[in-house]
Amino acid sequence: MTKIIIIGGGISGLSSYLFLHKHLLSSPSHANYDIRIYDSYDITASIISGLHNGTSEPTTDVEQDSSKKSSISPTTIGGAIGISKNGLNVLSRLGDTESSIHNPLTQTISRGHPIQSWDINTARGFKLASIKTTGSDTKHEDNDGDITTVSSSDTSTMVMIARQVFVEILYDQFKHVAPTMDILQHKRVVDVVVGDEVTPNIVKFEDGSQEEADLVIGADGLRSVLRKAIFESHKPVNCQDHEGSGWARSWVEWLSSFGKVKRQDENKVKCDYVTPHYE
């Protein structure tokens, strides 16, 4: 049996499971696959009021304090997300096209906010850019040679939606297709031992337990445990080997020949794929 572990039960983790379910678990050989999701937060315990099932009942302070450490919130997953056309195309392949209830695309459009333009402003209110998200007009020529213009200005190709709501949509689809709910478990992964052709991958948890897996999918965000395990288990990569002979590097070499610029030793410049960078 092939065992697959997905680290992270957010947007990427749930989407990965839905794709694997569609292409592996729905096949005649589905019994040969065991897929599990582990997330450090309990995504089933929402502390955001008025989002799930369209209700508007506020949550009490006691309920928020008791669950904020283990559930998802804007602090842990962000406030909103913009899903462009390529993302909407992915959603269209995740669910049941014959059902609007179990169709993530239909649910995202109905519970989100389709937009026709996206303005990017500075903190002081100055507009930097205005991005049109609607489709462009197309021209069609009939058999008589007459050309008609079809306007698609009202067709939006981007949807803005609260991240919490979007996670709930994917989670509802997960509940619809998952054979058992213990597939998604609230356990924090602290380390991954990367295997090879002979030894399996080993996923280690905060409680001291560990599991072996044939495939480990990292969907655990910016500070990914799996990414850290992969890149720290290999020899550091020289960043300048990837940069090649760009114009900036050529200028540095030319200036260094006149003693104007002191260039670092290439052996000391290493790529850091582990530490989060925000620039």
TrEMBL record:
Keywords: Monooxygenase, Oxidoreductase. GO terms for molecular function: monooxygenase activity. Signal peptide: none annotated. It comes from the Eukaryota. Residues 53-74 are annotated as: Disordered. Belongs to the paxM FAD-dependent monooxygenase family. This is FAD/NAD(P)-binding domain-containing protein.
